Amino acid sequence: MACTVETEYAAFLENVKRTVYVDNLSPQVTESVLRSALDQFGTVKSVRFITNYSQPQNIPKHALIEMEDEEQAKAIVKLIASCPMMILGMPRPVRACAAKVEMFEDHPAAPGRKIEVRWLDPNDPDFELARKWKRFVERHGAEAQYVLKKLMAEEEKLAKQQEDNLKANFAKYEMIEAIMADATADRLARHYGMNLRNEL
Question: Quick check: pTM over 0.70?
Answer without folding.
Answer: no
